[in-house]
Write a structure and sequence with these properties.
Blueprint: H1 7-30, H2 34-38, H3 40-43, H4 47-55, H5 61-65, H6 70-100, H7 105-128, H8 137-170, H9 184-190, H10 193-207, H11 210-231, H12 252-275, H13 286-291, H14 297-308, H15 311-329, H16 335-340, H17 347-360
Helix pairs in contact: 1-4, 1-11, 6-7, 6-8, 6-10, 7-8, 10-11, 12-14, 15-17
Length: 361
């Protein structure tokens, strides 16, 4: 650790970082729009985990309060490379793994978390207990342990990124009618987060310089806010109708035109989705419905939301009715066969759609 007289700035920059962590945790916990509150396990499965991870930064308080402490500095510089890669990998697997229904990553994440905890607990105790525990050669040995665990967690994060990249290749649009739909746009925004953070996670540990870490702390604080901005609107469905200047005049003629347009779009939607059995396409997307209507995507989305309760709910309601009808006509059929014959990709998709719609009643 370089000895300088900048202890005040060390503490201030560290405090700035911690404050953004607490803000991140607070906003993620309290600020949710309507849809996530109704379907939080599906839309934001990583919410509680994300709050927990960001609150864990509180363990770094000894450095904020006493930046001149060697043990507090050791904790601070080790925390970022050792924990952040695990956080990023776990959150990627938690969110996108839940959406894809691939629970096999939970065991891998639990093992990675246990390894990270074993590496960090001695440093936390050393910084919080007066007098410290790790001295001389013990501190050097544990520094090597931190490097080894950090590299291991980098591998874990890379594994998560590669898996997300594969899922993104499989999925080109997030407007899916089945519950297994994949938020590709959101994935594109966050899957490279470990790479974005990397230069600032290692700089303090490699240079062993609190002066350099001042800049890194501020950059990490800014990245926290940027990440928060990116994750908040991930599933926010805001339908904006593109009205012309003439349409904005709320007179009787305008209302008649809007009603006539809405009725026509609704008829076209019913014709394609219900009468032509478009809902039987297990991979039906909103864009497919738009292609069969004479108006643009924003208008079709608005009518689906206002008249039919939303694209996914509307299509899956029809599929559920088809499932019941199929089972009555084919009492010996398996639930899997009935689900696939009703427009679902699997029985699991049927079960999730039914559970989600029943909760809305």
């Amino acid at each position: 650790m370089m000895c300088t007289d900048n202890f005040y700035w060390y503490g201030v920059s560290a405090a700035a970082y911690l404050v953004t962590c607490w803000v991140f945790a607070g906003v993620r916990w309290f600020h949710t729009c309507r849809a996530p509150k109704e379907r939080h396990n599906y839309i934001w499965p990583d919410r509680k985990m994300q709050v927990f991870f960001y609150l864990l930064g509180t363990c770094l308080l000894p450095y904020v309060l006493n930046p001149g402490s060697e043990s507090a500095w050791m904790l601070w510089k080790s925390y970022f490379p050792c924990t952040y890669y695990f956080y990023c990998g776990a959150l990627l697997f938690c969110f996108f793994g839940s959406v894809k229904q691939w629970n096999r990553w939970k065991k891998v994440s639990a093992i990675a978390g246990a390894i990270t905890m074993v590496a960090m607990v001695p440093l936390v105790l050393d910084a919080w207990i007066p007098g410290g525990m790790l001295k001389g050669s013990c501190a050097k040995i544990w520094g090597s342990v931190i490097v080894a665990v950090s590299i291991l967690m980098m591998g874990y994060a890379i594994m998560a990124m590669v898996q997300i990249w594969k899922w993104m290749k499989e999925t080109r649009d997030q407007n899916y009618s089945n519950p297994e739909d994949f938020p590709a746009d959101y994935a594109h925004r966050v899957w490279l987060a470990p790479v974005l953070f990397t230069p600032w996670l290692w700089v303090g540990f490699i240079t062993d310089s609190p002066d350099v870490m001042i800049v890194a702390n501020l950059v990490l604080a800014v990245l926290n806010i940027i990440l928060l901005i990116n994750v908040m609107p991930a599933w926010r469905r805001v339908v904006i109708l593109s009205l012309s200047e003439e349409d904005e005049e709320h007179d009787e003629e305008h209302d008649e035109l809007v009603e006539d347009r809405t009725r026509k779009i609704a008829e076209e939607i019913v014709q394609f989705v219900e009468k032509d059995k478009g809902y039987m396409d297990a991979h039906l997307k909103l864009e497919h419905v738009v292609e069969h209507c004479s108006y643009g995507r924003s208008y079709v989305s608005g009518v689906l939301s206002d008249r039919f309760g939303g694209f996914s709910d509307y299509v899956n309601t029809l599929r559920l009715k088809q499932y019941d009808a199929y089972m009555k006509e084919n009492p010996l059929a398996t639930t899997e066969a009935a689900a696939e014959a009703s427009g679902f990709t699997s029985y699991l998709a049927y079960h999730r759609a039914k559970e989600r719609l029943e909760k809305k009643k």
